[in-house]
Structure formats: C-alpha cells, structure tokens
Design brief:
Blueprint: H1 22-33, H2 38-53, E1 57-64, E2 67-75, E3 81-87, H3 96-105, E4 109-111, H4 124-129, E5 133-141, E6 144-153, H5 162-194, H6 203-271, H7 277-286, H8 288-319, E7 328-330, H9 332-342, H10 344-347, E8 357-361, E9 368-370, H11 372-394, E10 405-412, E11 417-424, H12 431-434, H13 454-465, E12 469-475, E13 479-487
Parallel strand pairs: 8-10
Antiparallel strand pairs: 1-2, 1-6, 2-3, 4-5, 5-6, 7-9, 10-11, 11-13, 12-13
C-alpha cells in the first residue's frame, strides 16, 4: 500500500508535465478515505494536498457553526502538521480578504503574484510579506461548504499551475467526503463518551444504538466515497476517450492508404523492374523489403495498443455508472472482466515477484437484473481482498511456495440464482477471524491501510439490496473462497 505521508503525483515542485496516473490518483483518494479520526485525517490531508500542489505553506479551515476555524496548518520546512482550533479572525498571518471572498463566492482564487496584482493588494498580510503565489479553494460536498483550503508559495511566482489545480479538483471531493465523515464520527464519539455512566443501566439499548450508528456510517461512507470516486473515474475516462477515439478511428484509413501506396510500389516494380542507380541505392539504404514486411506489424501493434486503451476507458466508464441506480439486466461476466481490467496494475508481474494468475471458469449465465454500480463495487472489493491475501503470501515465499492464483467460477443454481465463487490460494483465515469478516469496521490490515468496510458493504449490497447471500469458507495455509449468490430476477414479497 502507498505510504499516505509520502504521496505525490509528481515529486518535483515545479510544473507537472507527466500524464495523469489514474491508478495513483485513485490510490491517493483511497488513502484519504481510509482515515476516520479527524485529527489524523487533517494531518494526512495537509501533507498530501501540499505535496501535490507544490505549496510551501498550507492552512485548512473548517466551517463550524457558520464560522471558519483554522483547524490545521503545515509548513514545508517542518514535518509536523499543527492541528489546532483558532478562529480565522484571530489569524494575522493569513490574507483574510482572500479567504472571506472564497467562503462567500465558493470560487477558486489563484494568484501568480498577489502583491503585484490588483485584486487583493490592500490586504494587510499580502502587503506585509509581499505575497507571491496563492491558491485558495472551497471544499464542498454536494451543495454544502465544508471549509476552505489556503495554500501559498512565497518563494516563486506562478507556482500553482492549471495542472496542479486540476489535481486538487480531483482530490478535493474525496477530501470533503472524508472530512464530513470524520466530523460525524468525532461527534458520535463525543456522544458515546458522554453517556458512559449510563452503560450499566442501558447496555442493551446502547449496543443496538451503536450497531445502527455503524450501519449508518457504513452506508454514508459507501455512497459518498463511491460517488466521489465514480465522478473522478468518469472525468478521467471522458478526457482520454476523445483522443483515443481519434487515434483508433484513423488507424483503419491509415492502413488502407499504406496498402494503396505499397500496391503502387509493386506496380512500379512490375513495370520498371530495372530502376536507375539512384533508386536502387535508396531501396538498399531503407531496406525496402524489410520495411514492407515490418510496416504491417507496426500498424497492428498500434491498433492493439489503441484497443487496449479503449477497453480500459470502457471499463472505467462501467465502474463510474453511479447514476444508474435503477435495476437493469446485466452480463455478470462483463462486470467481472471490467473489475479485473481496472485492477490490472495490482495483478501484473513485478520485478521481485510473479504475476497473479487469473483463472476464469465461467458457466453459461443469463443476464441478471441488478444495480450494476453496486455489483461492480462488490467484485472490486472481493478481488482486492484476494489480491491483498496473495500479496501477503508472496511476502512469505519460503513458507508458501506456489504460484499466486485467483480462480473465478460462475454457475446457475436450481433456485433461479447465479453463484459466483472467488477463490484465492493465499494464506487463509482462521476460524476466529472468519466469524467477524463481515462486521463493519473489522479488519486484519495494519492501521491506516483499510477501513474495515469492504466486506461489510459487499454483504449489505448482496444480502440487503439484492436479496442474495454472501458467505466465506477458508482454511489456514490453503486459501479462501468467497461465494456470492444473487437472484436472476428481483424477488417480490407476497
């Protein structure tokens, strides 16, 4: 997993010229969403946002009871993030006119040289420090203003380029969701602590209340997190779809044009078999025979690459169909294949370890009427769990000397359901852990790596939303099998 303290799209503090790494942006978004404790989230978030924006100083202000509060401050010269609670009006080292404008208008303010521009030159702080680069942006979840992010770089002008602003726009929706969830979680913790004295008298009642709270939080995190991630993926897929479509659409005509030119060359060779010396020398220099043979291979390689990118874009679009809340007939195998394609980077071979083998034992399934985005999420969660288990096994190669494999089997049952089995030959799960794997917030991963919600959310989607069943069988040292069973058609109550 990525160390969330050292995440950055680009390591340098200048302009970003590299293509956007989709998988890395998604992993950064997941790293942000993995923290539910507010103070820890603030510290992690400030480091991530500053590193990716190229800022030297950053301040995160949260809107609490209709008033902006300075909750976190970071400086590139210091590794520590100061988590505090200071009213914005008491902060003399901030351009309050800029921050107040962003709060009111909910619009970005990006200044290449604040001291030299006309808009905020009367601000005392701008004048005092002769402020240069400024980026101030609202943090919004839906229509709700969560807070304001203020970043500055007083060493250079024009530090916050459009590319860096675009990266922040991709990350801030998830930041807004995580901040709101952490605030809700913090508020819930305070309420629980305040009622500690009533535990003896109301133990059963409190246990039920906590269960409902966890379930509500689970649903909130699931819907908001996947909505934000879906918008991120859909935006990236849309941006790369047009140039890929242009390239793919022109490969066919280019192939035809080249074929016509090669035919013309053949005609010239038939009618003029003895070329002049100058043409003979040029044919020899360019190795015409090899060029003709290799050119078609080159075009086929270009076509294969374009098709690969096009398939990935289609998979990303399928993953981001969060607006498709209505049930509809879908091909389960296509959803599984799309999930595998998205997780290709996690599955492929690395320099120090072998590639995870995916074995598909697909049966002849009818189309299943379900909510595509939710079922897609289930397969993503279960496959990621299997990959994580195999990663753990590959870290213990001496003890588990076998090729890491995930086997996916599908079949139709006699009870008008489809059954999907996802089996990994990893380290397995002991019986004590196995009894808790579908509990909300239960995880065997290291602190900060997972939220403990993946299997709980998947169970809710399969069992509660689709009237199916999700179970798990495992044997330590041999592997784990997750079994999904969902109705082919929604079941109606009599």
């Amino acid at each position: 997993m990525i160390d969330p303290q050292n995440i950055a799209i680009s390591g340098d503090t200048g302009s970003i010229s590299q293509p956007l790494d989709i998988v890395r942006v998604i992993k950064i978004s997941q790293a942000i969403s993995s923290e539910i404790v507010l103070d820890k989230l603030l510290s992690k978030l400030m480091k991530i946002l500053m590193e990716n924006a190229g800022a030297k100083r950053g301040v995160l202000l949260l809107l609490i009871e209709d008033e902006l509060i300075n909750r976190a401050e970071a400086n590139l010269d210091s590794e520590a993030v100061v988590v505090q609670e200071t009213q914005v009006n008491e902060c003399e080292d901030l351009p309050l006119t800029v921050i107040n404008y962003v709060e009111r208008s909910r619009q970005d303010v990006v200044l290449g040289n604040a001291f030299a521009e006309d808009r905020f030159t009367t601000d005392p702080y701008v004048t005092k420090v002769k402020l240069k680069s400024v980026l101030c942006t609202p943090i919004i979840n839906g229509d709700k203003l969560i807070g304001v992010l203020y970043l500055e770089n007083n060493l250079t002008t024009g530090a916050f380029t459009p590319e860096r602003l675009e990266i922040l726009r991709l990350l801030l929706p998830q930041a807004a969701v995580s901040l709101e969830n952490a605030i809700l979680y913090s508020s819930a913790e305070e309420k629980i602590q305040g009622r500690t004295q009533e535990l003896d008298e109301k133990n059963m009642q409190l246990e039920q209340t906590l269960h409902e709270l966890q379930r509500t939080q689970s649903q909130l995190i699931k819907s908001e997190q996947m909505s934000s991630l879906g918008r991120l993926v859909a935006g990236v897929a849309h941006e790369i779809n047009n140039p890929v479509g242009f390239i793919y659409g022109n490969i066919g005509p280019a192939n035809e044009y080249i074929s016509d030119l090669l035919n013309l060359i053949n005609l010239y060779q038939e009618h003029y078999p003895d070329p002049v010396d100058e043409i003979e020398d040029e044919i020899e220099d360019i190795d015409l025979e090899f060029l003709i043979q290799d050119l078609q291979k080159l075009l086929n390689s270009i076509k294969f690459g374009a098709e690969r990118i096009r398939d990935l874009v289609i998979s990303l679009r399928n993953f981001s169909h969060l607006d498709e809340a209505d049930v509809k007939p879908v091909n389960i195998h296509e959803i599984i294949d799309s999930s595998i394609l998205i997780l290709h980077t996690c599955i492929k071979e690395k320099s120090d370890r072998s590639q995870i083998e995916i074995v598909r034992n697909y049966g002849n399934l009818p189309q299943v009427i379900c909510q595509i985005s939710q079922i897609h999420q289930v397969f993503m969660n279960l496959l990621i769990n299997g990959i994580d288990a195999l990663e753990t096994m590959r870290d213990k190669q001496q003890e588990y000397n076998r090729k890491p494999t995930i086997t996916i089997s599908t079949e139709v049952t006699d009870s008008e359901t489809v059954k999907i089995k996802i089996n990994d030959n990893g380290i397995g799960i002991n019986s004590q852990t196995l009894s808790k794997i579908f509990d909300p917030f239960f995880t065997t991963k290291a602190v900060g790596v997972g939220t403990g919600l993946g299997l709980s959310i998947s169970y809710s989607i399969v069992v509660e939303k689709h009237g199916g069943n999700l179970s798990c069988v495992s044997e330590v040292g041999k592997g784990t099998e997750l079994i999904i069973e969902i109705p082919i058609k929604p079941r109606t109550d009599n």
